[in-house]
């Protein structure tokens, strides 16, 4: 029996990894959002696993955090 990742599980994992990498860089949510040209509350929803970012937003976030896209999954 294989276990499948649900959409909700994937969002939570993404959010957890965003938080981990942001905190490792000692950045605030606002600092990441500012570097990405987005509102802080939008970025916070990604970290909280409330919504999924577009690929374009993910790339901006990765650039702001100086990580690779694969580091988020």
Mean pLDDT across the residues is 95
Classify the beta-strand content into a percent band: under 5%
As residue ranges, the low-confidence spans are: none
Q: Number of helical segments?
A: 4
Number of E-type strands? 0
CATH topology: 434 Repressor (Amino-terminal Domain)
The SS-based structural class is mainly alpha
CATH superfamily: lambda repressor-like DNA-binding domains
Please give the CATH architecture: Orthogonal Bundle
Report the radius of gyration as a whole number of Å. Answer: 12 Å
Can you walk me through this structure?
The protein is an all-alpha fold and 73 residues long. It has a single domain, classed as lambda repressor-like DNA-binding domains (434 Repressor (Amino-terminal Domain), Orthogonal Bundle). It is 62% helix and 0% strand. The longest helix is centred in the N-terminal third of the chain and has 18 residues, at 7-24. The chain starts with 6 loop residues before the first helix and ends in an 8-residue tail after the last helix.
Question: How would you summarize what this structure contains?
Answer:
The protein has 73 residues and is mostly helical. The chain contains four helices and no strands.
